[in-house]
Amino acid sequence: MFPNLKILCPACGSPASRSNWYGPKTLHHLHGQSVYMTVRYHCYSCGPSSSRASSGRRKLQPCSSKLFLADAPGVLASLPEPASTTWRFTNTGRILCDAAVVDFIRAMATRSSWSAMAGAINEMKSTAWCRERELPYSHLCNSMQVTALGGQLAFPSEFRLTAKCIKNLYMADFHGREEEAEA
User: How do residues 123-152 score in pLDDT, each as one tens digit?
Assistant: First the structure.
């Protein structure tokens, strides 16, 4: 989307080199989930570089590089606004949720328990799973006159959010907006 965008090291501000893909992680939405991957970068300006005397000449030892992800908070903060606003999610380090999930959690935080919110989100995601996966599969099998595999398309438990995940997302969002909330 942004072909001329230079990713800068969050530690030293030097241009970084793209390394490889990192992930995948699950990005939770109110009505489903998607696969999320990001790029890992190297900064060769950071890291221990040293010199030593050898035969009266200085010889540079190879420097090790600093590794970081393209969606690190320091990297996102350094991007121009059109690029940084494309990342509309909250990352707690383990769980990624898009802005709509965070908005829902924020709106419900004073009205419900963490487990009730997790249950509501999981119900919406499970319903979307049924609508987007189970029903089309069943209809396809019927139209092809083949027997559907039973139980193979049930909503996977690893896509469910727990009360602890919901609370951690709320706290990560709060800490990210602390200055706004205090103003």
Answer: 888 888 887 777 788 878 888 888 877 655
Q: At what angle do helices 163-176 and 99-108 cross, to 10 degrees?
A: 100
Q: What is the pLDDT of residues 59-70, one digit of tens each?
A: 444 456 789 998
> Is the CB of residue 39 less than 8 Å from the CB of residue 70?
yes
Rounded Cα gap, residues 130 and 153, in angstroms: 8
pTM to 2 decimal places: 0.58
Indicate whether 12 and 79 sit together in one domain: yes
Do 101 and 57 fall within a single domain?
Answer: no
Say whether both 104 and 45 belong to one domain: no
67 shares its domain with 142: no
Range of the domain at 56: 1-87
Which of 125, 153, 123 is CA-nearest to residue 139? 153
Distance CA 81, CA 36 (A): 21
